[in-house]
Amino acid sequence: MMTGTQPLMLVVAAALVDPDGRVLIAQRPEGKNMAGLWEFPGGKIENGERPEEAMIRELREELDIAVKEPCLAPFTFASHTYGAFHLLMPLYICRRWEGTPRPLAHAALKWVRPRDMATYPMPAADLPLIPMLRDLL
Q1: Cβ(71)–Cβ(95) under 8 Å?
Q2: What CATH number did the domain enclosing 79 receive?
């Protein structure tokens, strides 16, 4: 899909929230674009996939956890232009899952209070989401 002259990249992300109100962030691994930055887990929506299906698949692939669709609450979205593409990213809140998150596709995972997220370097598209999470939690 194109927006003007730039391709539109559709991705999904989740703010996993633990019982203490902390959110899981994941560090992008070496060798990937934006390596070392912290992000919300998620990824690209594949052809024919609904966003919720993509979110469930990505959480299984990246964190080895099982999430049921009713546990994904649409929260907000990011719309950000990077050099070569425009990113559109719905962010879901998820408070229930099965399993313990493990970094299968990331360098590290951290549970962080939203008020402390600004101390972690994050991709530009993720930054506007932090105040919204702070207000929610």
Answers
A1: yes
A2: 3.90.79.10
How far is it, in rounded angstroms, from Cα 102 to Cα 21?
A: 19
**SS3 call for 12:** strand
Q: How far apart are CA 28 and CA 43, in angstroms?
A: 12
Domain extent for 10? 2-136
List Cβ neighbours of 97 (8 Å cut-off, separation of 6 or more).
16, 59, 65, 66, 67, 71
Q: pTM (2 decimals)?
A: 0.93
Token pair belonging to 123: 């991709």
For residue 46 the two structure tokens come to: 């594949």
For position 5, what pLDDT does the model report?
Answer: 78
pLDDT, residue 115, reads 95
pLDDT of residue 24 exceeding 90 = yes
Specify the DSSP element, H or E, that contains 56.
Answer: helix 51-63
Q: Count up the domains in the chain and report the number.
A: 1
